[in-house]
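User: I'll paste a sequence; please echo it back and then give the predicted structure.

Assistant: Echoing your sequence first, then the prediction.
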Amino acid sequence: MVIAKKSAKKSAKKTATKIITNSVYIFLIWVTTNLYLQAESKEAQMSRFLDEAKSGKSSKERVAAINQIGNIGSLQATLAEPAIPVLMYLLNDKDDKVRAASAHNLAKVYPPNKQETIQKLIQVLKNDPAKNVKIASAEGLALYGADAKEAIPVLKEIISKEDKKKAKPFKMAMQQISGKKKKK
């Protein structure tokens, strides 16, 4: 009787181990499949957002699409690679809100040619007539940190022409780029 109980316990343990092992395998397959499907749907989303950014019906819709491109790109840069030329092109859009969103999100998608992007953002910072676009360009440049040090003279010039309150975003960008802490 004692031997039969031990044998039954051993058999139950083996069965439980097999069930747990199979459950783990099934779970891993499920996770892998879902990750694959999510990546695939992100590509489809990126394609839709690119279309909306280029030809959305309103600037609000286009800006929302550009922000979504930036969000996806900040999580997975490879998905955003097709968006880089579009965002660069949209820096010249007639709508200042679209230009600002493009400038801000361009740095978030981690373009492979970062120096080209930095130069383009510096040009926008220098030449764009809209203040919101200049601020967005400064914020984009700030995301590059020390790599965007070429922007410091432009930021200093803008800061010298603005009153203290309006210069704040440019000062913050310059601090992030230079790595210096704010003076108290």
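The radius of gyration is 26 Å. The domain at 15-178 is CATH 1.25.10.10 (Leucine-rich Repeat Variant).
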